[in-house]
Design goal:
The protein is an all-alpha fold. It is 66% helix and 0% strand. It has a two-stranded antiparallel sheet with strand order 1-2.
């Protein structure tokens, strides 16, 4: 039934769908054109180049719209209207035949040039002037950023002048209503800032007043804060308070951070005025609204100033509870199993944000440590109990790691009070703590024992500090110091080098390494160390002195003088440096320069015997004996038992022709030193020349003294001969060696006893003083110029504990 409705097409009615595709007009067959004679003739003659027949458009075109668009289906001379898309593409039936197809209009040539801007118009002149003003403000700010304050002020002034010219020009053109108030405000504000930066406070205040009094400037009242800052710099605290409060009144509560900063400034001004109660009011308000570290520290200072113990404790508790707003350091610890996270953490480990966090934390720890050290002696009956309370409070806060540092500061306080026993006991408590604290405590203990010259204990604790933290440069320096004292200079140098390897800025290690090389005779390496140290410590007097001393040892006096001259610019009143300069110039033969520096040294320190002696000898050499008298009299006051200075005074009187005064001086010397042969000889000579009766008496005394001197010398020679003979007999045989040894010992004791007694023409303490000079250690440091004796070498090179180990290992 279904197939009944289907009708099949008969076969004879079936059409071929592809019929006609292979049929084509032979006219379009271009393969035989080169054989077509007619086509070739047309190409060779002008027949093929005839102009096309011109097409004349019809005179009437049906218009369908107001713009002349043909109506749909309109017929032009029997031809249908072309499609709109074809017409838009560039085709037009109205164009004559043979025209060039140019839809983009390129045949018309390039576009005409733009019209030039006419800069002579008033509007253009105003715009150019405004741009110049803005450029000057920017140049002024950039100059200030570079630190060129004078140039920044000049640019600001020039911007002000051009801005006033701009305002006048607007008034002349009648456009005063369009004055750029923002530009005027910027010019005045920048000018006031540059005045203040150049300490021209009066001009700055006047400029700020111009801005504040102009009602057209919005929010100008805030600039009263800047005016208050200037009054504070001028120490006009009353006006500073007034302007801070005026600014506070003009700032709404929406700007709470700004109000808090102004309140903090008000509190600081009250502290400078000594009004601690008013300052406390401001700081307490800030700590209740928006607590911060600085305000908490200032509040503790105010409570300390008024002596309120309980409120000091409360303020300290508030201080350690102030939130820092930073993340824990744990987030910067990279996990081991995530390489992507490790790369991210490595990138942010030392970025600007983490640096800011570290700085904020370090500042908070500094304020807390300072507060604890300040209030600890005041909040309890003893500073130890106060430190214990502070330690307990810190242990329960977010700054728990500061507790150990407070304990170390407790030991340092004991040191300042000269209680070394308590300091040592406090530091020994850290031997069982973690490695960092143990290393710091052991370092300080080593330093203490080294100062007490207990070098074994110093070495022990230096080893303990190194075992707890091998990278502790202070511990390595202390270990090197103990080796230096043992005179194992090579080993000491190794420890100093290791300390420098761990911390290249450890100046103590570098200084001591230079001294070690100096002791080893490696002067060039020592010089290199001290030159590096001078690049770090530009104004260190000790480093400059060591450099001068090394150049002197290297026989380069000109460089030594140059470094000592630099040293005088740092310590211009150091008498020993001036004396050393005089000595170097004297060795160079420049007596005038030597006299100048010796005289300056005497002026600052008139008790240096070597300087006094040189000045007196200089005046004697220049035939000014009268001027030499005052120097030798000064030496007499310093060393009254030294007869040579009094003899020099008498000699100066005699050389200057004042024989009467010379005679009185010799008589006075004879009363004090009756056995002085030289004095008696001059008395005999003067009395003979002056014809005095005392000449016989002095001649008799002279003979007696000379005879005693001969007897003394004979006894000394006999004692030496007997001791030498006893030694020879003792070495000859062992049978009678016992008695010979006794004789030798007796002779030696006699010789030693005679050596300690002065001769008749020597000062009584000449030998004793010489022995003292040879072993005396001057604790004043390397600035001191040393006399050219064994004592000079000792104090310049061998004094290690006081002047050369400048190693302050106590924590800051």
């Amino acid at each position: 039934m279904f197939m009944e409705n289907v009708h099949l097409v008969p076969e004879e009615e079936e059409d071929d769908l592809y019929t006609g595709y292979n049929d084509y007009n032979p006219t379009f067959d271009g393969e035989d054109l080169h054989n077509d004679e007619g086509f070739q003739q047309a190409v060779r003659t002008s027949h093929g180049r005839r102009p096309p027949v011109s097409y004349i458009a019809p005179s009437r075109i049906p218009v369908g719209t107001a713009m002349g668009r043909p109506m749909t289906g309109a017929v032009q001379d029997g031809a249908a209207r072309p499609m709109t898309a074809v017409r838009a593409a560039g085709y037009s039936s109205s164009i004559a035949r043979g025209s060039v197809f140019d839809p983009l209009g390129q045949a018309k040539g390039p576009a005409p040039p733009l019209e030039t801007r006419n800069e002579d118009t008033p509007e253009e002149k105003i715009k150019i002037l405004e741009k110049k003003v803005n450029d000057l403000i920017e140049e002024s700010c950039l100059a200030h950023a570079r630190g060129d304050l004078q140039l920044s002020l000049e640019k600001a002034k020039e911007a002000g002048r051009k801005e006033r010219a701009l305002v006048r020009q607007r008034e002349q053109t009648g456009t005063a209503d369009h004055i750029n108030l923002d530009l005027t405000y910027s010019v005045l504000f920048n000018l006031a800032n540059q005045y203040a930066n150049n300490d021209m406070y009066t001009e700055a205040l006047n400029t700020y007043q111009v801005i504040v009094k102009n009602k057209m400037f919005s929010n100008a009242g805030r600039l009263k804060v800047n005016m208050a800052n200037i009054y504070f710099k001028q120490k006009n605290y009353t006006k500073a308070i007034k302007f801070y409060r005026m600014a506070l009144d003009q700032i709404s509560n929406a700007h709470n951070a700004m109000r808090i900063k102004i309140m903090q400034n008000i509190g600081v001004v009250f502290i400078h005025m000594g009004q601690y109660s008013d300052a406390i009011t401001s700081f307490e308000y800030i700590m209740s609204e928006s607590p911060n570290i600085k305000t908490g520290f200032n509040l503790i200072l105010c409570y300390y100033a008024i002596g309120d113990r309980e409120r000091m404790k409360k303020a300290f508790q508030k201080l350690i509870c102030v939130p820092l707003g930073i993340d824990d350091d744990d987030k910067y610890i990279p996990p081991n199993d995530d390489p992507h996270a490790n790369m991210v953490i490595e990138a942010i480990k030392n970025d600007k944000l983490h640096q800011m966090e570290r700085e904020r934390k370090a500042l908070a720890e500094k304020y807390i440590m300072t507060s604890a050290k300040l209030i600890a002696p005041a909040i309890e009956s003893s500073f130890a109990a106060g430190f214990d309370w502070c330690v307990d409070m810190v242990k329960g806060s977010q700054y728990v790691e500061l507790a150990n540092d407070l304990e170390i500061n407790k030991a340092i306080t004991y040191l300042r009070q000269r209680d070394f026993k308590q300091a040592v006991e406090t530091l020994k408590m850290f031997e069982k703590k973690d490695s960092r604290v143990k290393s710091a405590a052991a370092t300080n203990l080593s330093f203490l024992y080294f100062l007490e010259k207990d070098y074994d204990q110093a070495d022990r604790y230096a080893e303990l500090a190194m075992s707890a933290d091998r990278y502790n440069p202070a511990a390595l320096v202390n270990k090197g110091n103990t080796e230096f004292v043992k005179e194992d200079y090579e080993k000491a140098a190794e420890f100093y080098k290791e300390a420098l390897h761990n911390d290249s800025s450890c100046t103590e290690a570098l200084y001591n390494l230079g001294l070690t090389y100096k002791r080893l005779g490696r002067l060039e390496e020592a010089l290199d160390c001290f030159l590096k140290l001078h690049a770090i410590l530009r104004n260190s007097a000790q480093v400059m002195y060591q450099l001068a001393n090394l150049y002197e040892m290297l026989e380069d006096p000109h460089q030594a003088i140059e470094w000592l001259m630099q040293l005088t610019s740092v310590t211009p009143t150091d008498a020993q440096v001036l004396a050393k300069l005089g000595d170097l110039y004297d060795n160079e033969g420049d007596k005038s320069q030597a006299f100048q520096y010796y005289y300056e040294s005497y002026r600052y320190f008139p008790s240096n015997i070597s300087v006094i002696e040189w000045l007196g000898a200089y005046y004697i050499d220049t035939q000014f004996c009268e001027k030499a008298i005052q120097y030798f009299e000064r030496a007499t006051l310093i060393q009254p038992t030294q007869v040579k200075w009094q003899l020099m005074v008498a000699s100066c009187y005699r050389r200057s022709g004042n024989y009467q005064k010379a005679l009185e001086t010799y008589k006075d010397i004879h009363r004090k030193f009756p056995e002085n042969v030289e004095c008696l000889r001059f008395l005999v000579r003067l009395c003979t020349d002056m014809g005095l009766k005392e000449v016989q008496d002095y001649a008799t005394k002279l003979k007696k003294v000379e005879k005693m001197k001969e007897i003394r010398e004979q006894r000394v020679r006999s004692g030496r001969d007997s001791s030498a003979r006893g030694r020879r007999e003792g070495s000859a045989g062992s049978g009678d060696g016992q008695s010979n040894h006794g004789t030798s010992a007796k002779g030696e004791r006699l010789s030693v006893k005679l050596k300690t007694l002065p001769g008749s023409n020597e000062p009584y303490e000449a030998s004793t003083q010489q022995e003292i000079d040879a072993s005396y250690v001057d604790p004043l440091g390397p600035q001191m110029q040393r006399p050219k004796t064994a004592a000079r070498k000792r104090t310049e090179e061998d004094e290690f504990a006081d002047e050369e180990l400048g190693d302050d290992l106590l924590p800051e």
